[in-house]
Amino acid sequence: APRRLRVARAIAALLLLAIGCVIAEGILRSRPRRIAARMDVSLDFDEALHVLVDDVRAYVPRPGAAHAPLYRINALGLRDEETSRNKPAGTTRIAVLGDSVAFGYTVPASLTFDSQLEQLLADRAQPGHRIEVLNAGVAGYDAAQEAAFLETVVAPLAPDVVIVLVVANDTDSPMRLVREGDRLAAVSFAPELLLL
């Protein structure tokens, strides 16, 4: 009998707690407060390395820019060796799209994902067939910016395959550049936060 009484009391306590939570949530949901928020990520973007373009992409890598000894931006605006806009005959062209992880922000060119993939596939390609893997990553981009970069920069290069490297923060609030005095700052806007 004492065991049944303890079980009954535990069940009653859990039910009362659940009912209390439902009531509290109902009260809080009936009176939400909304605020606009700006979260300054406080990243400086070097205008020698980036070009402001439009509201969606915000910025793109500046063609010809370099951050020696790690990377150089080719004439097409990609972190890569110079390459033809037109895909050469007998070539499979692959584009790797993404943010700083795809770009390989702190990695020498030979160690980036696209370079490693190109070497791996080239070693297995049919004789006379060329594999070209383009690094279309842009540091700081979110999914919407990556899609716009795909449409405006990558698609005209006619890749046979596009690989999108997805990282957990790709769905965060979009990062945009704003001029603050003599510098560009990357700012992430959360248009509306719900405070309960």
List keywords for this structure.
196 residues, alpha/beta, three-stranded antiparallel β-sheet, three-stranded parallel β-sheet, 4 helices, 10 strands, 29% helix, disordered C terminus
Report on this structure:
The protein has 196 residues and is an alpha/beta fold. The protein has 4 helices and 10 strands; from the N terminus they run H-E-E-E-E-E-E-H-H-E-H-E-E-E. It has helices at residues 2-29, 100-103, 113-124, 143-154; strands at 33-45, 50-52, 59-61, 66-67, 71-72, 91-98, 130-137, 161-164, 175-180, 183-195. The strands form 4 sheets. Strands 1-10-9 form a 3-stranded antiparallel beta sheet, with no helix packed on it. Strands 7-6-8 form a 3-stranded parallel beta sheet, with helices on both faces. Strand 4 and strand 5 form a beta hairpin.
Structure summarized in a few sentences:
The chain is α/β, with parallel strands linked by helices and 196 residues long. The chain has helices at 2-29, 100-103, 113-124, 143-154, and strands at 33-45, 50-52, 59-61, 66-67, 71-72, 91-98, 130-137, 161-164, 175-180, 183-195.
